[in-house]
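Example (one chain per record):
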Amino acid sequence: MAALFLKRLTLQTLKTSNGCIGSWLGKYVVRRRTPAQLRLFAPAPGPPHLTHTHAFSTDGDTQDERTPKRMSGTDRSNIGRKIPDRIIHVLDEKGNDLGNMHRAAVIRLMDERDLRLVKRCGDAQPPEYQLLTGAQIHAERLQLRSEARAAPQPGPTLTKELTFSSSIAQHDLDTKSKQIQQWIEKKYKVQITIKKSKNDPEPENKIEGIFNHILQTMPGIATFSSKPQPAKGGKAVMCILRPLSKKEENAYRETQGTQKGDTLNKENGNDRGSDVLH
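Predicted structure:
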């Protein structure tokens, strides 16, 4: 009986130990499983995801990218040996007219004289080009830059404001007139407001005289942008001066030249009359 009990206990112990060893080996195998083996299991299929992509095509290019830029008549760039036109009208470096030439002949002439080709007028038929040296192209570019810097920049015209009384002294009025002239020369508009003085018996006439005096100190420079008119409930008079435009300046010079010519003619006529009398 005791022997049978020992035999069963031994078998039970062996079964328990084998189960523990198998469980430990199973855990070891799972831990040692490689990522490649794990990828063999496909994930569950899901809804497809749409991805927006841009197809490669030349049809989507803009018109500016497809169309070559046309050179303007003021461009001083050397176009090199790639002349787009087959027959062109050519001027040499001295401005002499060489007539219509084939581009191959122009290229040979460029090589012989070591010249560059510059487009002058692309709208002409045939287009007009000129042969220039590198120094001539550089000089023309410098001239264009200086002209661009000298040209007035477009922008809003600023307005300066000046206010004083109609009882202003002559010295102070001359000082303010010089200040207004400086602003006008810098292309500013000037708003002038003159307050009526209670001590003046006729302030309207005096204010009108002040405006005329200021304008007469700037002949050929300024004119009224807004003529004198009441302001501040009739307690003041306001006007706006502006610089003359180029057209108005030219007209003023022509008028002055005509007046000087008439004066000289009158003087010469008086001299001739006196000679006849003598």
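Caption: Residues 246-277 form the longest helix (32 residues).
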